[in-house]
Specification:
Two copies of one chain form a homodimer. Chain A is of the alpha/beta class. Chain A folds into two domains: about 140 residues, Aspartate Aminotransferase, domain 1, CATH 3.90.1150; about 240 residues, Aspartate Aminotransferase, domain 2 (3-Layer(aba) Sandwich), CATH 3.40.640.10. In chain A, the strands form three sheets. An eight-stranded mixed sheet of chain A has the order 2-9-8-7-6-3-4-5, sandwiched between helices. In chain A, strand 6, helix 9 and strand 7 form a beta-alpha-beta unit. In chain A, helix 12 runs parallel beside helix 14. Chains A and B meet through helix 3, helix 4, helix 6, helix 7 and helix 9 of A and helix 3, helix 4, helix 6, helix 7 and helix 9 of B.
Chain lengths: ~400, ~400
C-alpha cells in the first residue's frame, strides 16, 4: 500500500456551524477561573458538601441489587416507566401530568437539544430573553436558528416587547427561564406570567419553558410554571432537571409535553443517544420515591440564601454609582451591570490576577450585549470566602472606574 | 386572560426532517416482536444472564464510596480523565492512542450523532455498506446527508465499487463496520481492509469506523481496525462502545481521533448533552481497571458461538434453495437472503403468528433494498429455544415459498 506523499497533514472537514466554535471564549474564561488561588464565581457549580450522597448511594445499591439485570439492559427512548411516573408525580404539584407525557433526557442540555432537533429548521427565529442562558442558545444555533433577544426588566421578559418581536419576526418558538433565571436570577411574578401567556396564546406561538432552578426558592414560594396557566399546557414544552436538586453528574432531566410532539421528541432522542443511562434513570426513580427531596432542597436553599446574602452585602459597597444588581430570591446566580464605562470582559484579566473570577455578561446576549455586565454564582463558596474575594474584586472595579 | 376559541387542538411545529419519522416502521416491528409467546430474533439484546453484574456493582460501590462527591459533580465534555486513560489503553492494543485522543460519548449512538453533528452539512453524501446499520443512517439522515450504498460481498465492502462511488458522489465521509457487521455479521479480512484503506488514502476521504462488536470473536482472532493501517489513523474516527462488552444500559462509548477535529467533537458533545454521566464514566473506568474483561468477553463469546451454531444449524434445512446465509465468526447477528419470490416484511405477520420474529432486511439498505433479507440475532436465546423457534419459522418460509 502506498501512502500519498502530502506535506500538509490531513484535516477533517468540519461542518460550517461548528467551524467558528472551535475555540469557545468561555472555555478560556473557565480555564482562567480554574487557576490555582482564584475564587471563582464563574460557574454554577454546587458545593459538593451539599450533595445527598448517602441517599444517592443507597438508591444505586438498591437498583443494582433489586433490578440489576434490567439496569444493565437496553431501555426505551421515552425513558424508564418508574422514572416517568416519579417525574409526572413531581410535575403534577403545579401542572397535572401523566407519565405518558414525560420524555426523559440526559440532563437539561440534552433536553434543549432534543427540542431543537425536533422543532427547528434552519433560518427559524427563536425569541429569547435578553440576556439568556448561552448553552441553550448554542443548542438552537447549531440547528441554524437565529436568536432574537427580547427586552427584559426586573420582572422578566416584557410582554409588549415580546408581542412586538412576535409580530416582526414570526418566531418558531419562544424560549424562557421564568424562575431564578440564568444569568440574571430574576423571577417572573404571576401577573407577568399571565401577561406573557396571553401574548403567546393570542399569536399561537409555542413556548419552551426551562425550569431547572424553580424549586431552589429562598422564600418558600415556588412559582407555577407558565405551562400551568389556562391554555398553555398543550403549547409548552416544560424542561426540568435533577442537576440542581440532586446531582449534575448524574445527568437526568425530563421534558413534559402533550400531543403528537411527544412522539417526535422520542424519535429525536433515539437518533441522538438511543436512551439515557438505564442505571441512572432507575436510580433517580428510586431516589425520587425514597428521598426526602423537599427537605434536602430546603437545606440546600437555606445555605444558598446565606451565600446570596453574603454576595449581595459584599457587592453593595464596591459597585460604582449607577450600577444595577439583581437580588435573586432563589437559584444560583446574581447579575450585576456596572454601567457606563465598564467592560467586564476587559476587566477579567485584572480580576483573575487579583484572585477572583466571574463570567462576563456579554456572552448571554443574543444581540446588543451590555458589556458592563457580569454573572456571579453564589452557590460554591462560604460567606467568609465570598466576602473576602468580593473585597478584592472591589479594588479591581475601583481601578477600572476611571477608564 | 382569554383563551382563543379554536376548534383544532394546538399542534407543535415539527422540523421537516422528523415529520416523516413520526411512526417508525421498526417500532411497530419491535412491538410485534415483544408480544407474549413470541421468540424474537429481532433485537440485538444481550442475554442478561451473561452480564458481569457483580463486578459492575462493585465498581459503582467503589466509585460512590471513594469518589462520591466528584461522581455527582459536573465533569468535562471530553470525558473523565480516568476513563480516557483506560479507553486509550484498550485501543492501544491495536492502535497506539493517547488519552488526549479519546472523546467519551453516551454509547455509540451518541458517538455517531456527535460525528454527524461535527462533520455533516445538508446535502453531503455519506457512503455506507449495502446493507448497513440503520440507526447510524438515521443519525446521518437527520443532518441532511444523503446515504449512498456501496456493494458488498462476503468480505465486506467492495473496493472497486467504493472507488467508483467516491468518484461519482464526492462523499463527505465513508461509514463502515468492518468487524462482525450489523446487520450481516460479516468481517473484512486484512487484505480487504488494506485495499479499502488504499482507496480512502488515494481519494483523501475520511473514514468513520464503527467497531462495537470486534472483540466478540468466536475464533480468538480480533482484527485490527482500518484506523491502524499506515496513514489511516489521522483520517479515521474510530468508535468503540462498552454496550456489547459490558452493558448496553450504562451507555458509555468513545471516539478515537487525531488533530483539530477532536476539539470540534468536544464542542459538539457539549452542545448535545454537556457531558456523559460522570458516575457511569467513573464506574466504567474502574471496571476497565479492575475487571477481567478479556476473560468475560471470552465467556460471552463462547456462549454466543454455541448460539450462532444452533441458529445456523436450525436454519440450514429450512432455507429455500438459492438462499444465501452468512456464517459470522463473531458479534451478534446473522443475515439471510431467502432469494427470489420472498418478501421478509410481508412474511413477518405470519411468522409472529407462529411465535417467532426477526427484523426484515429492507430497512438496512440505503437504496435498492433486497426485500427477501432478514436479520436474526443469535445472542438472546438458548440453543434449544433457537432450534424450536426456527423450526416454526421454517414452516412459515415453506408456506411462502410458492407465492
Amino acid at each position: 500500500m502506498t501512502v500519498p506523499e502530502t506535506t500538509a497533514p490531513f484535516r477533517f472537514p468540519v461542518a460550517g456551524r461548528y467551524a467558528g466554535m472551535a475555540s469557545s471564549p468561555l472555555k478560556s474564561i473557565f480555564d482562567l477561573a480554574a487557576a490555582a488561588g482564584v475564587v471563582s464565581f464563574a460557574g454554577g457549580i454546587p458545593d459538593p458538601e451539599l450533595f445527598d450522597l448517602g441517599t444517592v448511594t443507597a438508591a444505586y445499591d438498591w437498583v443494582l441489587s433489586h433490578q440489576g439485570s434490567r439496569a444493565l439492559q437496553y431501555g426505551v427512548s421515552e425513558g424508564e416507566p418508574e422514572l416517568r411516573v416519579q417525574a409526572a408525580r413531581r410535575v403534577s404539584r403545579t401542572l397535572p401530568t401523566d407519565a405518558s407525557q414525560i420524555r426523559v433526557t440526559s440532563g437539561s442540555q440534552e433536553g434543549l437539544f432534543v427540542v431543537a432537533e425536533a422543532l427547528l429548521e434552519p433560518g427559524d427565529v427563536v425569541l429569547v430573553e435578553s440576556p439568556t442562558y448561552l448553552a441553550a442558545v448554542q443548542a438552537f444555533a447549531v440547528h441554524g436558528a437565529r436568536m432574537v433577544g427580547v427586552a427584559t426588566d426586573d420582572d422578566g421578559v416584557d410582554p409588549a416587547a415580546l408581542e412586538e418581536a412576535i409580530r416582526t419576526h414570526h418566531p418558531r418558538m419562544v424560549y424562557l427561564i421564568p424562575s431564578f433565571q440564568n444569568p440574571t436570577g430574576r423571577t417572573m411574578p404571576l401577573e407577568r406570567r399571565r401577561a406573557v401567556a396571553e401574548v403567546l396564546l393570542r399569536h399561537e406561538v409555542p413556548l419552551i419553558e426551562d425550569d431547572p432552578y424553580g424549586e431552589l426558592s429562598f422564600t418558600g414560594v415556588v412559582m407555577p410554571p407558565i405551562a400551568s396557566l389556562p391554555g398553555m399546557a398543550e403549547r409548552t414544552l416544560l424542561l426540568n432537571s435533577m442537576s440542581k436538586l440532586m446531582s449534575p453528574g448524574v445527568r437526568i432531566g425530563w421534558i413534559r409535553g402533550e400531543g403528537p410532539v411527544l412522539e417526535t421528541l422520542a424519535v429525536a432522542k433515539a437518533a441522538i443517544s438511543m436512551q439515557s443511562s438505564v442505571v441512572d434513570q432507575l436510580m433517580v426513580a428510586r431516589y425520587l420515591e425514597t428521598a426526602e427531596l423537599d427537605a434536602h432542597v430546603r437545606t440546600v436553599s437555606a445555605v444558598y440564601r446565606e451565600r446570596r446574602d453574603a454576595l449581595a452585602e459584599a457587592l453593595a459597597p464596591v459597585l460604582p454609582a449607577g450600577a444595577h444588581v439583581t437580588r435573586p430570591e432563589g437559584g444560583m446566580f446574581l447579575w450585576a451591570a456596572l454601567g457606563e464605562g465598564y467592560d467586564a470582559q476587559e476587566m477579567l484579566a485584572d480580576a483573575v490576577a487579583a484572585g477572583v473570577a466571574y463570567l462576563p455578561g456579554w456572552s448571554f446576549f443574543a444581540e446588543d450585549p451590555d458589556r458592563s455586565t457580569m454573572r456571579l454564582s453564589f452557590v460554591t463558596h462560604s460567606p467568609a470566602v465570598i466576602a473576602e474575594a468580593i473585597g478584592r474584586l472591589g479594588e479591581v472595579i475601583a481601578r477600572h472606574g476611571g477608564r
